[in-house]
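Sample entry (484 residues):
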Amino acid sequence: MSGIGPSLHPRFNRRSVLQAGSIGLMSLGMNHISALREASASPVLPEIKAKNVIYLFLSGGLGQHESFDMKPEAPADVRGEFRPIPTSVPGIDICEHLPLLAQRAKHWSLVRSLTHKYNEHSEGHVIMLTGRNTLPPTFNASKPMPGDWPSIVSVAGSLLPQSNNLPPAVVLPQKLIHSSGRVIPGQFAGVMGPRHDPWFIEASPFHPKTKGAYPVYEFNHQKGPMHTAGLKYQAPNLALSEEMTQPRLMKRMDLLKNIENQRRRWDQEASTRSFDRYRQGVISLLTDKKVHEVFDVTNADEKTLERYGRHSFGWSCLMARRLVEYGVNLVQVNLGGNESWDTHGNMFPHLKNQLFPPTDQAVSALLDDLSESGLLDETLVVMAGEFGRTPKISHLPQHYDLPGRDHWGACQSILLAGGGITGGTVVGASDKHGAYPVSDPQTPESFAATIYNALGLPPTAAWHDDADRPHHIYHADPIPGLLV
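Predicted structure, serialized as tokens:
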């Protein structure tokens, strides 16, 4: 497959123009219609095992020393300021500032030996969001490229059957965008083609300066706590506009039928059926109150908001739980956009006061909800970033008042819960400084395979390009030692 070069302009046939016009007739913005982009049917239609995945992605990179692989016996410039606390599972200690997760250790397991060779943000994003340990030939750190590897969400979304009026795989609450405004690569379908791009539920606004779980835990890496006016968490508005009454909608539908009849005379290809499904999906979303309730997380009941937190991390985890309950199989939740976890400086106060409290609260509430509803057994929750942090603490006084750690792809810890894995276990180990794996090293490929396996995708699963060539999705076995 070849992408359109930067100096060329896309060409549109009559069918595409009519489809675009039909969308406009229903008074739906293109930002909403793009969310309804449907993948072409794959030759592989696996038998789904009624399992789901929630991928909590920590853009910026969580330090293993400050979270799940603490080194209390290491020198001070390695171990840092935080101390370990025992969890509810004897022998497993984690950071003192994650007390709620520590109480729920029976639900989760750790992998302390995930490793890759990349230390730059865009590279790490591509590696961990696509599950490929090599960069694509067309990789460009400044922007996504048509030749990029497809994201895990794109692959799963193209192979999993749609069970309701929502796509089988979504990303929330925002695209990952650098403070400079460039879109970070690794999030899209790449070589699969833009029609397989994920549905981004863009509920969280982009702001170049702010980080973290606004409005309660908003901060800036240089300035500390912030309170930016105008930040509002708002899911897609799928309701009919005031002027679009039900009778007017029906009239528009009659007009759409006429346009569709014209288009059928021009083109009898299979894409006609695809357009039918687009239209049905739009109308279903407009009229389905359950979908509106799934998205309306900021108006949840008081008890629920108290548990998850009235902040962007809590609302995002709550939406993920509702989406899985509704039938969406894979939900990627970006816990903080704009590389929120990139703690080069002021690391200890920002983790302690701004990043860990909302994460500990929201993820613990998510695990509780899934467990109480019976969904945890069939839902794998994974939490990872694009890399870990350097073994030694460093200080960049020209940028930060206090020290932090730099990027480190060679070792990071990831958390996994539910989905049939054995809770309260640890896979792999790092050396005494948390720098490199010393046992059971795991790769981004084994990480991705664990997600695909939890979704019920078989080892033979593949997506097919426009020339009908298969591209197999498994490049390693799932992480061993996790399944019951």
